[in-house]
Amino acid sequence: MTPSQMPPPPARVRIPAPATAPDPGALGRRTRYAALAAGWVATRALMLHLLVTDRLGVGGVSGEVYVLYRRWYDQLTTGAFPFGDPTWQYPPGAGAVLLTPTLFPFLTFFQAFTAVTLGCDALIALALVRAGARPGGSSAGAWLWVGGLPLLLHIPYARYDVQATALAVGALLALRRRPGLGGALAGLGALVKVWPLLALVGAPPGRSTRRALLGALGSAAVLLTVAALAFDHSLDFARQQGGRGLQIESLGGTALQLAHLATGRPGQVVYRYGAMEFTGAYASALVTLSLALTGLAVCWLVFWRVRARRWAVAVPLDAALCAVLLFTVTSRVISPQYLVWLLGLAAVCLTSGRTTQRPVAQLLLPAAALSALAFPCLYDEVIAGSALGTGVMAARNALLLAAALVSCRRLWAATVTASTATVRDATISERH
What pLDDT is attached to residue 423? Predict the structure, then answer.
């Protein structure tokens, strides 16, 4: 048979590859992330609107930025920290935060400061999403931050507490895998607003704790040195902070307000150190009591640290929230922006499926809403000591006190008195 007479070769039949079914888990994650992003954009747009209009209650919330912060900014650009200013009560790192608007020379100071705060808010949300996506993690933390922060209305964007919270959140999330970095971030946060150093209170014992403490000391020393060399009066804040009295929004202030309401004798309230404070002998005694209770809180945390034997993954997160809650409720000052710290730390706790602090986070949400109701919405009533204003403050502070007690009890139960079987089950769950 000649080649021309040979039959043609059979045609190749291509068998299509089987269609890959979409991963329902991946689709669910994308849907959740899209919902989180949409919720963040919507709520932050509302918060920015409230900040710009600034008409709720007594108003003047945004004045903290374009009046007070701007005055400090102008002073800092001359190479000196505010000196002899009773409203300047912050460590040198706060100066670095207040100078960040220089990164945006094409914006006004108010616009640039708001942009930086908004960016830090977004970074916190992103960090919480990533932490929740880890094995054993949960997206509840990101949802708490996205949905909980707007309960404080526009207050978070008119203070620099979001920036400090970003450092604390970063420190806690880095502590497990990179304790040196976590410590460094906590050290920087301590020089911005002191309390982020408490992120290290629950660091796992041993090498991790040593590396975290060295990181904190190193970063704090560097920032202190730069501040001392570049600016004058870098430590003047300590003198102003030491002279503070009893703020009307503190637990002691609420107790005094209730006493005044019961007796029908209004208390003496004055504006000092940037806040409304009680004056008089009872106020001084309550300030002393607050300091003593803070000392007891330190003793309890040290005692807990010595007695703790179970160091599950969530313990450093839970301990940080517990510590900051204790220092908040025993403080002679509880400003509404303190809830930014607590919401941020509670959100970090909820990124772990093994956290013990879910009931605490649930208590903090209504506490945040009541804080915003007290200031700015009903602040005239709070200052006047009316039944309405005093009732709102008493409810808010009762929730904070309950949150602190529940936090202590659950942290102790999980780390000191937990049974061996419970710890073994928790360890197995974390590994998987």
Answer: 42
Residue 284 to residue 291: CA distance in whole angstroms: 11
Rounded CA gap, 132 and 138, in Å?
4
How many CB atoms within 10 Å of residue 134? 14
pTM (predicted TM-score): 0.90
Check: CB of residue 175 under 8 Å from CB of residue 315. Answer: no
Query: Which residue, 185, 183, 164, is CA-closest to 121?
Result: 164
Nearest to residue 198, comparing CAs of 206, 190, 188? Answer: 190
How deeply is 12 buried, as exposed, middle or buried, from its count of CB atoms within 10 A (0-12, 13-18, 19+)? exposed
179-193 and 207-230 helices cross at what angle (nearest 10)? 40
What is the tens place of the pLDDT at every residue in 290-330? 999 999 999 999 999 999 999 999 999 999 999 999 999 99
- Rama region for 56: left / alpha / beta (φ>0; ψ in -120 to 50; rest): beta
Distances (CA, A) of 361 to 37, 172, 366: 21, 17, 10
- Measured torsion, CA atoms of residues 385, 391, 397, 403, in degrees rounded to the nearest 10: 180
Q: Are 115 and 104 in contact (CB under 8 A)?
A: yes
Question: CA 262 to CA 257: how far, in whole Å?
Answer: 9
Q: What's the whole-number mean pLDDT along residues 281-296?
A: 93
The CB density around residue 26, as the number of other CB atoms within 10 Å, is 9
The span from the CA of 74 to the CA of 98, in Å, is: 10
Which residues contact residue 291 at a Cβ distance below 8 angstroms, ignoring those fewer than 6 apart?
Answer: 332
247: three-class secondary structure by DSSP: strand
Residue 246 makes CB contacts below 8 A (sequence gap 6+) with 252, 253, 256, 277, 278, 283, 284, 286, 287, 290, 332
Cβ neighbors of 408 (< 8 A, separation 6 or more) are 300, 322, 326
Nearest to 400 by CA among 359, 347, 349, 364: 364
- 369-393 burial code (b ≥16 CB/10 A, e <16): bbbbbbbbebbebbbebbeebbbbb
Residues 6+ apart with CB under 8 A from 302: none
pLDDT in tens, 35-45: 999 999 999 99
**Percent of the chain at pLDDT above 70?**
89
**Distance (Å, rounded) from C-alpha 199 to C-alpha 127?**
16
